[in-house]
Amino acid sequence: MTDKSDLPPFPSNPHLAELNPDKLYHIGYSTDDDLKQLFGDVKFVCMGGSTTRMANFAALVQKSLADVPGVRDAQSPCPPENISRSDRYVMYKIGPVLSVNHGMGFSSVSILLHEIIKLLYYAGCDDPVIIRIGTSGGIGIAPGTVVVTKQPFNAEIQPHHNVIVAGKVAQRESYMDEKTRKDIIACGQRLDDVSVVAGNTMSTDDFYEGQGRLDGAVCKTDLATKMAFLEQAKDKGIVNIEMECVVMGALCHTSRVRCACVCVTLLNRLNGDQVNMTKEQHDRYQAHPQQVVIAYMRSVLTGEANGDEPSAKKSRL
Q1: What is the pLDDT of residues 82-112, one digit of tens each?
Q2: Less CB within 10 Å around the terminal CB: N or C of the chain?
Q3: Are the C-beta atoms of residues 197 and 239 closer than 8 Å to each other?
């Protein structure tokens, strides 16, 4: 059973102190479990939409970081096992790395983040970082480019997240951790055949109408309006669009947990709405942000990150 007595005050929800136990319903754990023993060494939570993608990423972490202490010590000849106790999300643990899927959109990623953040807190994890690894649509940049988010924006092109709480709209600031972003970019730029850039990201609660697409089952806009919307976003420094980043930045910032969003672009939305590529090309692009994040985790775990470089100066939320 997790002992709450030696934990610091929870950063954002004082009501949690009244829960005994606190059940993390959608991942199947609770404070009745010894969460410090099970998860206390976690330093990275890597999240992506697809269950298959995150299972494959877990196997890639196991293989790519096999020589790294902590990961090496947790090695098994068997593929990583799904340790989620629910069928809502999958979760794999490879030493200090958790690989979990968050589903698609605001609601799904929000539910998972609430429970993962509490899990990290109850487990007493030391300065963990949550990293979204995903795909996105580009705005004015080439397909295959990896974007590490500077500032998340919502679908109204505003740099915050609106959430309805008890029937009222609450506006929350959404931030990515600057130092983490710069360190990830520095690691990615050392990789061959991977283009990594920093840029602002728009998150919408819908893939079709919310992103101004003209190819959904319902469309109440036109090409001129869509292009004006995309150009307005581009003028704000937005280089890609996806469906989770602004929620992640708001929840993590409010809970004082570092986070980063690392997404590859699959198309340039200024040229159209449909994702047209072969499976081989899609798989190759999808691998790029995974390679970047693995390079970053290696640099942190081995102490290779150069804190004297200008790009790695301390900057915390």
Answers
A1: 999 999 999 999 999 999 999 999 999 999 9
A2: N
A3: yes
What is the distance of C-alpha 67 from the center of its chain? 25
* Per-residue pLDDT, 10: 52
**Would you say residue 55 has pLDDT above 80?**
yes
Q: What angle do CA 295, 297, 302 make, to 5 degrees?
A: 95
How far apart are alpha carbons 264 and 132 in whole angstroms? 11
Q: What are the phi and psi torsion angles at 135 (to 5°)?
A: -120, 160
In the numeric block, which tokens belong to residue 10? 């929870």
Q: Residues 22, 123, 150, CA angle at the centre, nearest 5°?
A: 100
Non-local (6+) Cβ contacts of 76 within 8 A are 62
Contacts of 281 (CB under 8 A, 6+ apart): none
Nearest to 238 by CA among 270, 277, 275: 270
pLDDT at 2: 61
- How many other CB atoms are there within 10 angstroms of residue 98's CB atom? 26
Cβ neighbours for 44, distance < 8 A, ≥ 6 positions apart: 96, 97, 98, 128, 129, 130, 131, 297, 300
Amino acid at residue number 140:
G
Per residue in 239-283, pLDDT tens? 999 999 999 999 999 999 999 999 999 999 999 999 999 999 999
